[in-house]
Amino acid sequence: MTDKLIPSEDEGRMILNGINGVGPVILSRLLERFSNDPWKILQASQSALNGVRGVGSQLAENINCAQSSDWLEKEKVKLGKIGATFISGSNLPNFLEELDDPPIGLYCLGEVPSLPCISIVGTRVPSLYGKKMARQLAKELAGMGICIVSGMARGIDTEAHLGALDAGGKTVAFLGSGLDVIYPPENLNLYQRIAQSGAVLSEFPLGRKADRRTFPMRNRLVAGVSLGVVVIESAKAGGSMITARFAAEQGRTVFAVPGRVDHPESMGCLSLIRDGATLIRSVDDILEELAPMIGSVSAPQNPASPTGTDLTNLEIEEQKIIQALSAGEILDMENLHKICAMPLAQTMASLTMLEIQGLVQKRTDGRYELA
C-alpha cells in the first residue's frame, strides 16, 4: 500500500489561481484569514469564506467546488506537455512578493535568472529610431549582466528582448495571456528563444486569452520585478504609461528616452521627463542612476577588433566598415563602397547606423572615421 501524496502549497495556489473571481487582492485577504495556507481556504466552510471581505456566496461556492474537481490534474498534464511549471512564494522573482497585490503564483517556461532586472517598454508601432534605441540599450545592459524584462508585445517590447538575445544575455517576458497562448503569433520564435535564455511568465491559467483586464495586470509585474523601467516611445495614454505609473507607485526608477516634440509617440516620454523621469542619452545614464542597487557590472565579454570596438553584435556590413576604418583611415563613402564591396545604398544605410551607435563619425569634409 502506497502513502497518499500530500498536496503541495503550489498545487493549492494553482487551484485558487484558476478559480473565477479569485484575484491577487481577494487571495491576500483569504491567506491572511486562513493562516497563509491555500488548502485551509479550499477546505473552509461557505460561512467562513463569506466572512472575508469581497467574498460573496457565489465565490465561496466556487472555492468549495474547486478542490473536488479534476481541473488541477488536467492543468498539470497540460503544463507537462509544454514543459512548464507553476511557481509561488519564495520561488517567485525578486521583489514581486513586496507588491500590495502580488501574484498568486506564476506559470513559468524556462528558468528565472537570478540577476538584477531592468524593464524596457514602449509603443507597438515604433519608429526606426525607437527600435534602434530599444535594441541597443537592451543589448548593452544584457551584456553587462542585467536581465531585460518586457511584455513580448509587438514593437519596442520585441526589440528589447531581441537586444538581450543579441548580447547572449538573459531576458524575461511577462504575458498578458495564458502561457500557452502566444501573442502576437508572429513572436513564436522569440517566445521559444526567451524560454531558452531566461523565462516566459504568466499569472493566468493556461488557455486564458488576453483582454483589456489582463494587460494592466501584466504591466504591474513588469514594473514590480525591476529596479527601473525604461520607456521608449509611448503615446500619452499608451499602455507603457500604465507600466511607468506602476513603477513610480512601487518606488522604482522611471527612465524615458526623449523624442521629437511633434511626434504623437513621443508625447508620453516627454510628459514623463517633464514630471521627473530620468532622461536617457545612453546606457550610462541608467547605470549611473541605479549603480547603488546594481553594484558593479561587468563590461560585455565579446571579442573585439584591434580598435577595441565590439564587432560581434554588429551587422556584417557594419563590421566591414569598421574593419576598413580600423587602422585610422579616413575615407569617403565612395571609397568605402568599393573597399567593402557593398552596394552604395547599403553602405549609406550601414554608415547611418554606425553613426547612431557612436562608432563612426562624419567629418566636415564629408569623409568618415572611427569615433
Which strand-content bin applies to the residues? 5-15%
Show unreliable segments: 296-308
Q: Give the overall average pLDDT.
A: 88
User: How many domains?
Assistant: 3
CATH architecture of the largest domain: 3-Layer(aba) Sandwich
Termini separation: 75 Å
CATH fold type of the largest domain: Rossmann fold
What class would the helix/strand composition place it in?
alpha/beta
Q: Please summarize the sheet with the most strands.
A: 9 strands, mixed
Strands, count = 11
Count of helix runs = 16
Run of helices and strands: HHHHHHEEEHEHEHEHEHEHEHHHHEE
Which SSEs are present, and which pair or pack?
Elements: H1 9-17, H2 24-33, H3 38-42, H4 46-50, H5 57-66, H6 71-82, E1 85-87, E2 106-110, E3 117-122, H7 128-143, E4 147-150, H8 156-166, E5 171-174, H9 188-197, E6 198-202, H10 214-224, E7 228-232, H11 239-249, E8 253-257, H12 267-274, E9 278-279, H13 283-294, H14 316-325, H15 333-339, H16 344-356, E10 360-362, E11 368-370
Parallel strand pairs: 3-4, 3-7, 4-5, 5-6, 7-8, 8-9
Antiparallel strand pairs: 1-2, 2-6, 10-11
Helix pairs in contact: 7-8, 8-9, 10-11
Short description:
The protein has 371 residues and is an alpha/beta fold. It has helices at 9-17, 24-33, 38-42, 46-50, 57-66, 71-82, 128-143, 156-166, 188-197, 214-224, 239-249, 267-274, 283-294, 316-325, 333-339, 344-356; strands spanning 85-87, 106-110, 117-122, 147-150, 171-174, 198-202, 228-232, 253-257, 278-279, 360-362, 368-370.
